[in-house]
Design brief:
Layout: E1 2-7, E2 15-22, E3 29-38, E4 45-48, E5 51-58, E6 61-68, E7 71-79, E8 85-89, E9 94-98, E10 104-110, E11 116-123, E12 140-145, E13 151-155, E14 160-166, E15 171-178, E16 185-190, E17 196-201, E18 206-213, E19 218-226, E20 237-243, E21 249-255, E22 259-265, E23 271-278, E24 284-289, E25 295-300, E26 305-311, E27 317-325, E28 329-335
């Protein structure tokens, strides 16, 4: 098993790094960091077999690129900023990108040789912006699939979750769910049965639990929970959100409080805080787990380190290794 970590390349980073996962239980640790893809700004990426599909910036251009065995095989670049997120459907060979700066959502296909083709894109207009300074424009930060096979985006600038259909050629807007003003909708996760979703609000440091009917596009907000202590009065931005595959535990990273908030999901979908664990570094934008969800790695962007945890049966995280050196990390992915 390996772990890939990539992020910004503004200082020391050269791109995407790979670590070997060694040992098991409380003896597990990461070894042999090596730069496997040299690329500018791989702040998010996905992997399918030999291919790594990554965000890329180069010479004032941004977009995505496909690499195989460390070599560039295809890219789609445009003038300006690169996207913030890439989703993937490996069966359909589709990629979904959200561009925080330009407001553009795109669907891109790839073939067996890793060649990329833009299929369609839409642009979020600046029509219903939130009240905070960070919401001066539309800022989609997430674009991926729903349980029912539609597409969904989170727009931080407009406090909104948007749903789209895609017929293989064209995107069609289907419905919207509106978060509270200033919430800063960033990422979301769906329950295993597809009847609920959980939205991470970057600007409010909250999680909104929403009952969801995908057939009739009906939404009902159930409750909102803080990811940080009431006493915290410094800057914080909620970032990554992940739900365990059994739907019993929800995790959100806090950039500022520098922690991962762990919630138990009760039968009525109420969230119960069971832990806030330090990431032992600064600005944890992403964290992820292995296929069996036994281990978690969090990347700390500003302190150039990652932390390895063992995940317990009660959902809590036990730190195993704290000072794993990796520069400017913003994306974590476990691979074979």
């Amino acid at each position: 098993m390996h772990i890939l970590i990539g992020g910004y390349t503004k200082h020391e980073s050269a791109g995407i790094y790979q670590f070997d996962f060694i040992g098991s239980g409380d003896q597990a640790h990461l070894e042999q960091r090596r730069n496997v893809v040299e690329v500018g700004g791989p702040t998010y990426f996905q992997k399918d077999g030999q291919f790594i599909f990554t965000i890329k910036n180069e010479n004032g251009q941004g977009g995505i690129a496909a690499f195989a065995n460390g070599k560039l095989v295809s890219q789609l670049l445009h003038e300006g900023s690169s996207p913030a997120y890439i989703g993937i459907n490996k069966e359909k060979k589709l990629l979904y990108t959200a561009n925080y700066h330009t407001g553009v959502l795109a669907v891109i296909s790839y073939d067996d040789q890793g060649q990329l083709t833009l299929l369609d894109q839409v642009k979020h207009e600046n029509k219903a912006l939130g009240p905070r300074p960070e919401q001066a424009g539309a800022h989609p930060h997430y674009f991926d699939e729903t349980p029912g096979g539609h597409l969904v985006s989170c727009d931080l600038g407009q406090d909104r979750v948007d749903f789209y259909g895609f017929d293989g050629q064209k995107l069609t807007h289907l419905a919207s769910y509106q978060n509270e003003d200033g919430f800063g909708s960033r990422h979301l996760a769906f329950s295993p049965d597809g009847k609920y979703f959980y939205v991470a609000g970057e600007l409010s440091s909250q999680v909104n639990v929403v009952k969801f009917d995908e057939e009739n596009w009906m939404f009902r907000s159930l409750a909102t929970y803080s990811t940080i202590p009431e006493s915290w009065d410094q800057h914080n931005g909620a970032a990554a959100i992940r739900l365990s595959s059994d739907g019993k535990f929800l995790y959100v990273s806090n950039r500022g409080h520098d922690s991962i908030a762990v919630f138990a999901v009760l039968p009525d979908q109420a969230l119960k805080l069971v832990q806030r664990v330090s990431t032992f570094g600064e600005f944890p934008r992403d964290f992820n787990w292995d296929a069996e969800e036994k281990y978690v790695v969090a990347a700390n962007q500003n302190s150039n380190n990652a932390t390895l945890y063992q995940r317990q049966s009660d959902g809590t995280l036990t730190p195993l290794e704290k000072d794993i050196a990796v520069p400017e990390g913003t994306r974590v992915l476990f691979t074979d």
